[in-house]
Specification:
CATH superfamily of the largest domain: FAD/NAD(P)-binding domain
Strand content: 15-25%
Largest sheet: 7 strands, mixed
Helix content: 25-40%
Mean pLDDT: 95
Number of helices: 16
Number of strands: 21
Number of domains: 3
Strand order of the largest sheet: 7-6-17-18-19-16-20
CATH class of the largest domain: Alpha Beta
Length: 462
C-alpha cells in the first residue's frame, strides 16, 4: 500500500491530499497531520449571531482561475461582490480608490489627483521623463525604495502600501518588487517607465468592471470540508510533527515522521511526505533532510495581523465596499488609526444583516496585536466612528489573531524560493507547498499544492 503523509491541514495541505487521491487512487493511504484543533489554516469560518463569517481569508482573486476551477470541480457555488467600489482614506479625506493603477502604482497623474497632493501628482507626471529604468534578471529591489525614488513617498504611503498591506501584512520598504509585482517588472523592462508599465497593466478607464474576487455563500469552511471529504484522508488534529527522517535499511517505507511529545514519541512510516507549513516550521523540519532548503526557509520572515469581525444593528454603512487607510493617517485629535482597512461586508457581498470586518496590524506593529480583544474592538469602533460619523455597538463580534503565519515576500524572495525548490528536488519523495512561494492567496496555494502532488505521484510511479 502506498502511504503519503501530508504535514499541514490548511488549504495547501488539503488540496495536495485531494490531488494525491485523484492521482494515486482509492488504495493509497493519505494522512494529514495538523497541529491546530481544526482544519483550514487561514481559512476559518465561524457563526456570528447565526451569520457565517470568514475570520481569515474571505475571498479569492479570479484573475488566476485556479481557485474558481477547484471550487467548481468540488461542486460548490461561487458568489461575486456587488457593484460597490472601494475607497481610501489619505491626507485626511476619503475618496474612491483610483482604478487606473497597478497595485497602487499610478498609470499617470490623472488617475491619482483625488488622493495625492499637487506636488505628488506633479512627480507622477514627471516620472516618464526620468532616465529609462529596467531590472537585470538577477536584480531585485524593495517596492518602497524604487517607488519612492521614482514617484515620491506619498505614492507609497497613500496608495501602494495600503494595498500591499492588505495582502501581506507587510511594509512596502521590506517587500521585494519581483515577488509582489512580477507583471510590473516585465512591463517596466519593456517600457523603461513605472507609469507607462502601470498604464499597460491597469484597466482602461472606460472598460466594463469585471468581478475581481469570488467567495463562497457559506464561507470558506465549505471549501475546507469539501477537500477533506473528497481526499478521503485520515485527519489527525492537534498533532505536532517533531521530526522528519529518511529511513535506512530493509524498511518498506523511505520516510519516518515523528509526532507527539518528546517523552512519548510516535513514528509514522511513509513512502513520501508533503510539507505544507509556514516557514518557521518548515525550517525546523527540513534541517536534517534538506539543510539548504531549511536555511533558505529561515530567510523568509513572517508577519502577524488580526481581524475584528462583527455583526451590527441596522445602521447605514457608507455606500462602498470598504476603506483602506494610508500610512500615517490620524484622527482629528491627532491619534493614529488602529485599523489598516475596513471591509463593509454586507455592502461588498450583500445579505440581510449588517456586517463589517476590520484588519489590524502590519510588520513592526506587533505591539498593537498585544492588546486584549476588548481593547482592539474599542479602538476599531473609534476608528469607524471617525470614518463614518456613526458610533455603534456590535450585536456580536470576535477578534481573530493570526500570529506569525503570514510569509513576507522580501527582496530576493524569488531567488530564495528557487533555492528551496532546488534543494527539495534533490530529496526523493519530498515536496513542499504553501503560501511561501508564488502567492499568498488561495489560487496560488492551489497551484503550488497541485504541483507538489504531481511531484509526489511522479516519484511514486517510478
Amino acid at each position: 500500500m502506498t502511504v503519503v503523509v501530508i504535514v499541514g491541514g490548511g488549504v495547501s495541505g488539503l488540496t495536495a491530499a485531494y490531488r494525491l487521491r485523484q492521482l494515486l487512487g482509492p488504495s493509497a493511504r493519505l494522512t494529514v497531520l495538523e497541529q491546530a484543533p481544526v482544519l483550514g489554516g487561514k481559512l476559518r469560518t465561524v457563526d456570528l449571531d447565526g451569520v457565517p463569517t470568514d475570520v481569515g481569508a474571505e475571498a479569492f482573486v479570479v484573475r488566476n482561475p485556479s481557485a474558481v476551477r477547484l471550487v467548481e470541480e468540488l461542486e460548490l457555488s461561487v458568489v461575486h461582490p456587488t457593484s460597490a467600489s472601494a475607497t481610501i482614506r489619505a491626507g485626511g479625506t476619503t475618496a474612491g480608490l483610483p482604478r487606473r493603477t497597478f497595485l497602487g502604482v499610478p498609470a499617470g497623474p490623472d488617475a491619482v489627483r483625488d488622493v495625492l497632493s499637487a506636488d505628488a501628482v506633479a512627480r507622477v507626471a514627471a516620472e516618464p521623463s526620468l532616465p529609462s529604468l529596467s531590472l537585470a534578471a538577477d536584480e531585485d529591489v524593495s517596492v518602497g525604495a524604487l517607488l519612492s525614488a521614482r514617484l515620491g513617498r506619498e505614492v507609497v504611503d497613500h496608495l501602494v502600501e495600503p494595498l500591499l498591506g492588505g495582502v501581506y501584512a507587510g511594509r512596502a520598504d521590506r517587500l521585494g518588487l519581483r515577488a509582489t509585482m512580477a507583471p510590473l517588472v516585465s512591463a517596466l523592462n519593456a517600457t523603461g517607465s513605472l507609469t507607462a508599465a502601470a498604464d499597460s497593466l491597469a484597466p482602461a478607464a472606460d472598460a466594463p468592471r469585471k468581478p475581481v474576487f469570488g467567495a463562497l455563500p457559506d464561507g470558506m469552511r465549505s471549501l475546507v470540508a469539501a477537500l477533506e471529504d473528497r481526499s478521503k484522508a485520515e485527519i489527525r488534529l492537534g498533532t505536532t510533527v517533531r521530526r522528519l527522517a529518511r529511513t535506512e535499511g530493509p524498511l518498506q517505507h523511505a520516510w519516518r515522521v515523528e509526532v507527539g511529545s518528546a517523552p512519548r514519541p510516535e513514528f509514522l512510516d511513509a513512502d513520501a511526505v508533503v510539507l505544507a507549513v509556514p516557514p518557521p516550521a518548515a525550517r525546523k523540519l527540513l534541517a536534517d533532510v534538506a539543510p539548504a532548503a531549511s536555511a533558505a526557509y529561515g530567510r523568509i520572515e513572517v508577519g502577524s495581523m488580526a481581524v475584528v469581525s462583527m455583526v451590527l444593528p441596522d445602521v447605514e454603512l457608507p455606500d462602498a465596499s470598504g476603506v483602506l487607510l494610508a500610512v500615517g493617517e490620524k484622527h482629528r485629535d491627532g491619534t493614529p488609526f488602529t485599523a489598516k482597512a475596513f471591509t463593509f461586508t454586507s455592502r461588498k457581498w450583500g445579505g440581510d444583516r449588517v456586517r463589517l470586518r476590520a484588519s489590524v496590524g502590519r510588520v513592526g506593529e506587533e505591539h498593537t496585536l498585544q492588546r486584549d480583544e476588548d481593547a482592539l474592538l474599542a479602538a476599531v469602533l473609534t476608528d469607524l466612528a471617525e470614518l463614518t460619523g456613526t458610533a455603534v455597538e456590535p450585536v456580536a463580534w470576535t477578534v481573530t489573531k493570526w500570529g506569525g503565519g503570514l510569509p513576507q515576500y522580501g527582496v530576493g524572495h524569488t531567488a530564495t524560493v528557487a533555492e528551496i525548490e532546488r534543494a527539495v528536488e534533490a530529496v526523493p519523495g519530498l515536496a513542499v507547498t504553501g503560501a511561501s512561494f508564488r502567492g499568498v492567496g488561495v489560487p496560488a496555494c492551489v497551484d503550488a499544492a497541485t504541483a507538489a502532488a504531481e511531484r509526489i505521484a511522479a516519484h511514486l510511479a517510478v
